[in-house]
Each structure stands twice: as C-alpha cells, then as structure tokens.
Known about the structure:
By secondary structure, chain A is of the alpha+beta class. Chain A has 7 helices and 20 strands. Chain A has 2 domains: 7-221, Rossmann fold (3-Layer(aba) Sandwich), CATH 3.40.50; 227-340, CATH 2.40.50.100.
Amino acid sequence: MMEKENTLLLIQGLKKYYDGRLVLDIEELVLEQGKVYSLAGPNGAGKTTLIRIITGLAQPDSGSLFFLGQKIRYQAQSDPHLRRRMSLLSQNPLLFHTTVYNNVAFGLKARGWAKEELAERVARALEAVGLSGFAKRKAWRLSGGEAQRVALARALVIDADLLILDEPTANIDQKSRKLIENVVQKLRDARKCALLLATHDFDQARRLSDKTFSLYEGKLVPSIIDNLFEGPLRESDGIKQMEIAPGLFLQVVTEKEGLARATLEAKDIILSYQPFSSSARNVLKGRVIRTSRQGPLVRVTSEVKGLEMDALITQKSLEEMKLNIGSEVYLILKTSAIKVF
Amino acid sequence: MQGVWKEAVSIIFSGDREFLGIILRSLAISISAIVAAGIVAVPVGYSLGAGRLKGKRAIEVLFYSLMAFPTVLVGLILYSIFSRSGPLGALRLLFTPEIMAVGQFLIALPVVVVFSMAAVKAVDVRVAETAFALGAGKLKIALTVLQEARSAVAAALAAGFGRAITEVGCAMIVGGNIRGATRILPTAIVLETSKGNLDKAIASGIVLLLVAFPVVVVFQILSQRSR
C-alpha cells in the first residue's frame, strides 16, 4: 500500500510468535495523524503484544513498521529518536519510587528539556488529569486511580505524535475512569496527536474513537466483536448458512467455505416480542438472561440454544418492551451486518 | 579479664595519636577501595543483572567463586607482582597504603558485583520498560534501574566495605604492618594479640566495629535520602 501524506504509522505483514505459536498476524494496519483509534478485543487477543511491538518493547518475527515514514529498526533500540515521538501508558503502569513531579517530568528530562520549562509543563499535565497540587507527593502513597492518572499525565506531558493507552481504565475507580475518558475526549477534540486506545470494552471503544480495530486471536477482524460465532458453512439453493450451534443456522453472505467465524455488532440486533415480517433473514428465538447499562444504552444478553447474544437497545425501548430476566424475545439479525472471516 | 576491657576503653578515649592514626588510615584505605570498587563493580553488576551478555552465566559463576577467594592469596599474588623482582616492582608500591587499597579493592569487587547484580535482578522489569517507553536512552535506563535498586546497591557497597575494612591477610602481606605507615586496625589487632597486649587488641577491635557499623548506616541513610 502506498503511504498517504498523513500516515503516522503503517504496519505491514506483521507476525509474532510465542513458543512457536502465532500470537499476532496483521496484514496491514494504518494510523493517520490526529485521529483516535481503538484497538478492541478480549483479553489475550494480542492488543498488548501489538502495542509492545509498536513502542519497541518487543520485536516482530516478520513484517515492517513505518512511523512517520521511517522504518522502525529493532536492532538499534539504543537510538531513541523515533521512540521519543511516541508515548505509552501501559496496562499496568509503574511509577518510579520518587515524587509525582519526578515521575511526570521523566520523559521531558529524557528528551533534554530545560529545567525551567519542566515545572510549568508538569503542572499543566497534572491539572489535565485533576491532580493539581500533587507534584510533591510520594508516588507510592497514591491510590490506584491517582497512580493511573499520574501515569497518564506522564504520558501526556510529552506531546508525542502518537499516544498509546493500553487499557487505561481497567481496574480503577469510577471517578478516575471518567476523568481519563474525559482526557481522551479532549485529546480527540484537539486533534494534536493520534491516539491508540487498547480496550476490551467495546462500548468504550465505540464512544471514544474515530475508528475501531477489532483484534481476535492475533488477527484483525472486520467488526466489533460484540457477538462472535463459529461454525461450518453450508450452501443450499445458493444461500450460505453457518451452523453456529447444533441445529441453529445463520444466513450469511460470504465467499468463504468450510469452518469460519463471524461477528455481529450488538447494535445490529433488533429485539422483538414476536417474529415480524421484514427483510432480515435471521430471526432467532431466545430468552433474556442479563441486562446492563452502557451509557445511554442497555446491553441485553439473551440465550439462544446455549449461545449468548448481545443486543444494544435504548433504555426507553427496554421499558416499553417490559423486558425482564427470563422474558422470551425474538432476535432479528440483519444478514448483511454479519461479518464472516 | 574485666580489667582488660576497662583498659581497652581507656585506650580508646586516651586520644593517643598513634591509635588515632591507625583508625584514620584504616578508613582512608577502605573508603578509597570501596569507592573504586563501586565505580567498577556497580556497572558490571548492572550489566550482568539487566543485560543479555554472551557468556553471562560463566561470568556470574566467576564472580560468585571470587567471593570465596582467600584474601591471603590476593595478598600473595599482589606481593609477587609488586615485589622488587616482580613485573611491576619498579612502581615501588609494596608496603604502601596505596597497594593495600588495591588489595582491598580486589577483595571488595566480587562482593559488590554479585550483590549489585542481585539488586538489579530484583528490580521490577517494568522499571526499565517504562523508562524505555518514555524515551530514555541506555544510560538513563541504567541509572533509573539503579535508582530503583538504590537500597540494595547501598547494601552491596556496605557489604564490600565491611569485607575490605575487616580483611587482614592481604593487608599483612602487601602492607607489612609498618608502624605509622601501613598499620591498620585489623593488622594492629593481630600484632597486639601476638604481643600479649590484649587491651590494645580489644581497643582496636571495638573501634573496628564502631567504624564499620556507622559507615554501613551512612550508606543506608544516603540511599533513603535520595528518595
């Protein structure tokens, strides 16, 4: 692929093995300058491995990565030139055993910033994460949420071209989570740097990013993995069907044959009390087993022949349909929304 | 016996110039040795603890073995090298405080290397990774890791200092225990015990302990203060 003018990161033919097992296999991935991307996938999908390769913490076994048009050279890690244009907030960030100030200023010092400029920038970064006045505090005395915000300030202060946040809101309190999401939203609005947000929360991915890359078992998949199906494909009368559970078939559109996987976003499932006549080819009968709030929407999980399927509906729809745990519902799946891979 | 201890205590507080000279000489030689050992051994310990050197395992085993190397043999080797007929005899370093410091440096070196290496290995791997991801170069990463391991590195230096200042075999051979020139606390203890001056030997022993302990405490305080 030809690099566009605003291409920030280009990944081509990337493969990574652990103990002989292929854990990452990405044909191509492009990040453009100033955009916010999500890297969504369940735990173990390869998100952290990909981030480690982008940031130079791990080497790919094959493939190439180009950052700002320059090939990232893994043999010359001592040259921090390209690395210094990226910034990372890792999944389980570590704060150095010193003050909050020294932690936040670390990246600036590594880049040779003058001492006089540090204080102002550090103060601004701490303010952005709601921790003004924390500069002199000992890092090891902070709560989990505060520590995560300091780590975010440490990543933000650098003003990198690419800011990578690996599960920044996992295992922290609601207040810190909201604050971090606000920071991401502000960054998205400012468009000063590109942002890659790794998350296993598909709703968060959808809300915060311009584009979501879904990763499953090391591979990019065509849509958000709210619902993942697997089964053999069969064709009869020119219609392809995937047997997703014994005796349960989904009509799909694909050129593929044999065993395949398919994803369907929760927003593409319609819930109804009764089957109604429509263009949708897949109507399945299920029973509601769980509901959970997701911002303004409600995620309704239904069980269909032993399979769990998630649908996103509005709070008002939930109330009007009077859906409760155990309610029988019909799930209407649009065939064209089912992505087979 | 009680009288001997009383005598020993009174010697310590007598302000005897020769005794004071022995204490200061001991400190000067051992501090020089540990400073030099720290400059060499801490980076070596870091490389072994954090790096992916070829033959790293063999080097580790070598340093572990050197920790048990008899100090009297260190003295003998130095003596053979620096004696008049030895290859470096022309330097006329034998029976000087300088060669005693060299001996103590060699004795402390493996201790500081091994302990520093263990200190670096114990540091959370995320320290180096975080420094790397934040744009630090190799030197900055090393300094950050050592900074995180500072208490354990201070302990390594303290252990090396303790081994150096209490060592007697090498000091006797290369220093010669010359009064007013190369006599230090451990060699004074040996001499006074052999002469039957138990009070003087005990006085030197008490001072040796009193000198060694505070230095270790100072190392610890310095490591805490930098936090």
